[in-house]
Amino acid sequence: MFSLIKEIEKAQKNKTAIGHFNISNLEMLKGILAAAQELSTENEKVPVIIGLSENERKYLGDNQIVAFIKSLQKENDYPIFVNADHCKTYESAERAMHAGFDSIVVDNSKLSFLENIKTTKKTTSILKSINPDILIEGEIGFIGESSALLDKIPSEIEISEENITKIADAKKYVEETGVDMLSPAIGNMHGILKNFLNPNLYTKRIKEISEEVKIPLVLHGGSGTATEDVSEAIKSGMVIVHFSTDLRIAFKESLIDLTENYFPNNPNEITPYRYMTVPIKAVKDTVLQRLKLLQNID
Ligand code: G3H
Ligand code: ZN
């Protein structure tokens, strides 16, 4: 039986991070697991977290996807976990807990700071009273909502030294809400900018927050972030790193490749489990690169 909190503690000790990858379908899930297994040895299995946003959960079904991932964990004897990403309401978080997700992101980051604390505290205490083992992550600071290709930084996101998460706010938030993990806003954003580089992370602030709150930190918006920043963020206290847009791009590009190259050369191929190996491999290759970065593997 694998435990996410134990894997987090191991990553903290090794100064590595666990990859969290969002999925929309089973092909993405297969690609992610294949990548993690390829990097694993008999004695050292690379853990992965499969993330599902509220819409991804709706598409795949809470109970169905949790059962699928738990059966993969059991049959492969592999540390693969499932996270209910960005739950925007109490009801959504409660449904995820009953479905058996390993962890839940309680996302009230669009509310004012004090409302965020109040709402997150309430959700966390109710969920923990029902299931004390559930791991809850809280979010401070709005970093956008879409894992998409963006023309510009969404206007509601403010990235500057004055607007990123303050050390005292992080401390207050963690003490008052009782969350197990924290995702601060430190220059990160969801999605990839089409014509510019995504902003740099404020890694010094990550270290200061980490030293103050002493709970694991989670970096959202990994896609498009400079690899040196991701490495520095991990050294500074980030223990889980989320990627979604990168996988969506890889999946879509592989479908274009199928249509433009594979099907014209294989006109009689109609069997999905044969040709869907192409998107699975595209996702696997993308995840392999990201996992190597998080695990410090050359
Ligand atoms: O929760 C999801 C992640 O934070 C994904 O962000 O699409 O920018 O990689 P990303
Ligand atoms: Zn996120």
Please explain how this structure is put together.
There is one protein chain. The protein has about 300 residues and is α/β, with parallel strands linked by helices. It has one domain (about 5-295): Aldolase class I (TIM Barrel, Alpha-Beta Barrel). It has helices spanning about 5-15, 25-40, 55-60, 60-75, 90-100, 115-130, 165-175, 205-215, 225-235, 245-265, 270-275, 275-295; strands spanning about 20, 50, 80-85, 105, 135-140, 150, 180-185, 190-195, 215-220, 240-245. The strands form 2 sheets. An 8-stranded parallel β-sheet has the order 7-5-4-3-2-1-10-9, sandwiched between helices. A two-stranded parallel ribbon has the order 6-8. α6 links the parallel β4 (about 105) and β5. α10 (about 245-265) runs antiparallel to α12. The longest helix is centred in the last third of the chain and has 21 residues, at about 245-265. The model has no long low-confidence stretch (mean pLDDT about 95). The site of glyceraldehyde-3-phosphate (G3H) has 16 residues, from β3, β10 and α10.
Sheet bearing the most strands, described? 8 strands, parallel
CATH topology: TIM Barrel
What is the radius of gyration computed over CA atoms, rounded to a whole number of angstroms?
19 Å
Find the structural class using helix and strand composition. Answer: alpha/beta
The portion of residues assigned to helices is: 40-55%
Describe the strand arrangement of the main beta sheet, using strand numbers.
7-5-4-3-2-1-10-9
Helix-strand topology string: HEHEHHEHEHEEHEEHEHEHHH
Number of helices: 12
The geometry reads as globular
- For the record, give the distance between the C-alpha atoms at the N and C termini, rounded to a whole number: 30 Å
Q: What ranges have pLDDT less than 50 throughout 5 or more consecutive residues?
A: none
Number of domains: 1
Beta strand %:
5-15%
**Structure ligands:** glyceraldehyde-3-phosphate, zinc ion
- Indicate the mean pLDDT: 97
- Reading off the top of the CATH hierarchy, the class is best stated as Alpha Beta
